[in-house]
Amino acid sequence: METKQFKAESKRLLDMMIHSIYTHKEIFLRELISNASDAIDKLYFKSLTDDKVGLNKDDFAIWISADKDSRTLKITDNGIGMTEEELENNLGTIANSGSFKFKNENKLEEDNQIIGQFGVGFYSAFMVAKKVTVISKAYGSDKAYQWESEGVDGYTITEADKKSAGTEIILEMLDDTDDENYGEFLDQYRIKSLVSKYSDYIRFPIKMEVSHSRPKEQTEEEKEAKKPLEYEDYIEIETLNSMVPLWKKNKNELKEEDYKHFYTEKFFDYNEPLKYSHISNEMPSYNALLYIPSKAPFDYYSKEYEKGLQLYSNGVLIMDKCADLLPDYFSFVKGLVDSEDLSLNISREMLQHDRQLKVIAKSIEKTISNELKKMLKNEREKYEEFWKAFGLQLKYGVYSDFGMNKEKLQDLLLFTSSNEQKLVTLDEYVTAMREDQKYIYYATGESAARIEQLPQTELVKDNGFEILYLTDNIDEFALKSLMKYKDKEFKSVSADDLGLDTPEKKEELKAKEEESADLLKELQESLNGKVTKVALSQRLKSHPVCLTSEGEISLEMEKVLNSMPT
Ligand code: ADP
Ligand code: MG
After folding, report:
1. Which ligand is nearest to the CA of 74?
2. Number of continuous H segments (helices) and E segments (strands) in the chain
3. Is 345 annotated as a binding residue?
4. Is 308 annotated in some ligand binding site?
5. Helix-strand-coil split of the chain, %, nearest 5
6. Does ligand 1 lie within 6 Å of residue 168's CB atom?
7. Tens digits of per-residue pLDDT, 296-315?
8. Distance 159 CA to ligand 2 centre (A)
9. Which of 329, 40, 42 is nearest to 199 (CA)?
10. Which residues are noted in the entry as ATP-binding (predicted)?
């Protein structure tokens, strides 16, 4: 049987490519710069073994220039260039990636920085341009060629003039419409910000002639006469990218200032971070910079807050907030991850949800957890500051997902203690317990001050036992999820049985209760069903009466549950 080849309606295919792969038009610049960087990488790679290239690493650069009058944007590189045949194959064939081939042929495993792989990025230029011209001269060839296309209708290739090896890409921008402004991509500020957003860590300099204006020098007489300043324009060549990613630098070269500066710039936070950590991980291989903010962002505890880390692949930004990299209980962490071996989706805006990402996420979670434990141990004050900002989130973490993560989080929790209202960990509480103490006691209320006044706390305190003061709604739910800590159960001070009475005392109380049965019954009836039972108690000292709860649910928890929508 003959196997037939699929045919493709290439015009339709190209149209689909152009209009459906990318969600943001602005990424065309990232794609063209990435291609230029790949082309330079290839020639640089050659230059390592071929003296005839005659270029040093510092000679390589990518140039951008914009001309508003002719509405053209030019991206030039002095990389490897393309022969006529390569123009045909690489730009005339959808989904053909010369870069992918190059990587395979040259077995670039170590230090592989080449970005291209899908063979579609180039066409993103047609999202913003009505006409694309590519003038290219391949390294080692003495002829240059010009490839030209207005999109779906095809392309032409003709001979052209170009002195040195490399490629020049000229976009004639689409006309502006009511909805779309393509002219903005010719604006120098817009270009600068796009480069720093997506291509800041391309390893070769991206240069542009930037025009500035400055006051003209005045003569002494003019100054004397207070003549108004006149301004003049001048042009300066600027390198728009910072090239070396901070996270790929050697830790020894970096100062605390560098990390802090990077954070405030990148994450738009005026406050210095409380803590940072720089990770270079092998297996899975990634670099990361992680930060804990010193204050919760204003929308942190709202639905608007979006968690996530920036995700880079080889120094090119892929996603601004990759949520899959952080568990909810660590959603306050800011930072970025750069990995060379991610399986990117074709648009490079998303990832294939693959094992690799999960492995990285796991490793990051572990790092955060270890950092927090270290901080708790060595920098208590700082940790308490952290706790005030984000403790609530950790308590939610204990309670949510059916308590799946409680083991991971229980040692990070702090509670206010009846002991001078200091913050204590569960471990500290249990370590300080007397041998005859059966339970971890807690009391719930609006504030520590209110709880101190509760009659129910008196007896426990008189026994010399510490009490945890729970003042957030979530607190008791979190403890209930934990159930136990180091084999000690939690006990509300308003629980029926506090475990303080000896069997003799219990007998004594029972006898008294029988004696006063009539009185108790009368009291209960007069309360008209507002309480389930009226009983005698030995827990009271300076108060005549108090409320207690039977069973597992405390009074405060009942209040929370009653206030929830049903
Ligand atoms: P990819 O970069 O994923 O391979 P593109 O559609 O962006 O796909 O580019 C297709 C191919 O065209 C590249 O693989 C490369 O071989 C070639 N190419 C594109 N731009 C340039 C350039 N500036 N210099 C040399 N070759 C280029
Ligand atoms: Mg590309």
Report:
1. 1
2. 17, 19
3. no
4. no
5. 40, 20, 40
6. no
7. 999 998 899 999 999 998 78
8. 24
9. 40
10. 31, 35, 77, 82, 90, 97-98, 117-122, 167, 348
Cα of 243 to ligand 1 centre, how many Å? Answer: 21
For residue 42, give the ligand 1 atom closest to its CA.
Answer: 25
Is 457 annotated as belonging to a binding site? Answer: no
- Does residue 82's CB lie within 6 angstroms of at least one atom of ligand 1? yes
**Mean pLDDT confidence for 208-235:** 93
User: At a CB cut-off of 8 Å and minimum separation 6, what does 203 contact?
Assistant: 37, 41, 113, 243, 244, 315
Higher pLDDT pick, 346 / 207: 207
Block residue for tokens 């070396």: 244
Please name the residues in contact with 37: beta carbons below 8 A apart, sequence gap of 6 or more: 62, 77, 79, 113, 115, 199, 202, 203, 204
pLDDT band at 336 (very low <50, low <70, confident <90, very high): very high
Distance, CA 37 to ligand 2 centroid (Å)? 9
pLDDT band at 563 (very low <50, low <70, confident <90, very high): low
ipTM > 0.95, yes or no: yes
The CA 103 to ligand 2 mean position distance, Å, reads: 13
Identify the top-confidence range among 13-27, 262-276, 383-397: 383-397
Mean pLDDT of the chain: 88
Ligand 1 neighbour 166 (Cβ under 6 A): no
Q: Which residues of 231-248 are buried (b: 16+ CB within 10 A; e: fewer)?
A: eeeeeeeeebbeeebbbe
End-to-end CA distance of the chain: 65
Q: Which of 54-68, 82-96, 347-361, 552-566 has the lowest mean pLDDT?
A: 552-566
Helix axes 473-482, 380-399, angle to 10 degrees: 70
Question: Nearest to residue 134, comparing CAs of 143, 118, 122?
Answer: 122
Instruction: Tell me the C-alpha distance between 485 and 479, whole Å.
Output: 9
